[in-house]
Write a structure and sequence with these properties.
The chain is an alpha/beta fold. The chain has helices at 17-22, 39-49, 61-72, 93-104, 108-119, 127-154, 183-190, 208-211, 213-229, and strands at residues 2-6, 28-31, 54-59, 77-83, 170-175, 196-201. Strands 2-1-3-4-5-6 form a six-stranded parallel beta sheet, with helices on both faces. α7 links the parallel β5 and β6. It is globular and about 50 Å long. The model has no long low-confidence stretch (mean pLDDT 97).
Length: 230
């Protein structure tokens, strides 16, 4: 089964490395990292690279991109996995723009480290390793990627409506200690879906694929099997 994976801001294929290795018998994963200044253009890039029909996953900003893909080409999506996403418009565009201003002023390293520290739950059992991996991805991406991806997030539209009448198998996988998108947001999304499975992982923050890879893999395998069965 084709599976398109859309990483979070300043992340790349390393975000899903453990899961990709563990689901090879169920799916053919394709990680698509996009850095476009508008989410509509980013979605067009994803759809140009994706197979005709595919399961779709997105983490954080990648989740917003997944919702834009779904809004654009719903019939191509076999199943949906979201983590740490706010489906609405940007809640604080001015504050988010200030991050871009700081990066333009030469503070990319400081901004990236601040965001990374907020993403990872410090009390988690894999916190140090997850934080190091996240910092590595961010610095591979660099300032130009951040500025384009951040602009797409600032200017995104509210895509909450894509959940209406969505009947494909859905997985909402959240960290209990996610400070960007609390688990209550996942519960609100789940309430709008007819076939959603909500899993909240303890001792985990914004990025379960790094912080709790074994639990994430188990949840993803169950989701993929549900898509097969459907």
């Amino acid at each position: 089964m084709p599976l398109v994976l859309l990483p979070a801001l300043l992340c790349d294929e390393e975000l899903y490395r453990a899961e990709v290795a563990a689901i090879a018998d169920l799916a053919d994963p394709l990680v698509v990292t996009v850095a476009e200044p508008s989410i509509e253009t980013a979605a067009a890039v994803v759809l140009s690279r994706a197979p005709e029909r595919f399961a779709l996953a997105g983490t954080s900003a990648g989740g917003n991109l997944a919702l834009e893909v779904l809004a654009t080409a719903r019939s191509r999506v076999l199943g949906l996995w979201l983590t740490g996403v706010n489906p609405g418009a940007s809640a604080d565009p001015a504050g988010t723009r200030r991050l871009s201003d700081r990066v333009r002023a030469g503070e990319f390293d400081k901004v990236a480290d601040e965001l990374a520290a907020r993403c990872i739950h410090a009390g988690g059992p894999r916190a140090a390793e997850a934080l190091a991996t996240l910092r590595g991805m961010a610095h591979r991406g660099g300032p130009a990627v951040f500025l384009r991806q951040n602009e797409a997030m600032i200017t995104r539209r509210d895509r909450s409506g894509v959940f209406d009448a969505l009947a494909v198998p859905a997985l909402l996988l959240w960290g209990r200690h996610d400070t960007f998108a609390p688990p209550e947001r996942a519960a609100a999304i789940a309430s709008r879906l007819s076939s959603a499975r909500l899993e909240v992982l303890e001792d985990c923050g914004h990025l379960p694929t790094l912080e709790a890879p074994d639990a994430t893999t188990r949840a993803v395998r169950t989701w993929l099997e549900a898509i097969r069965a459907s």
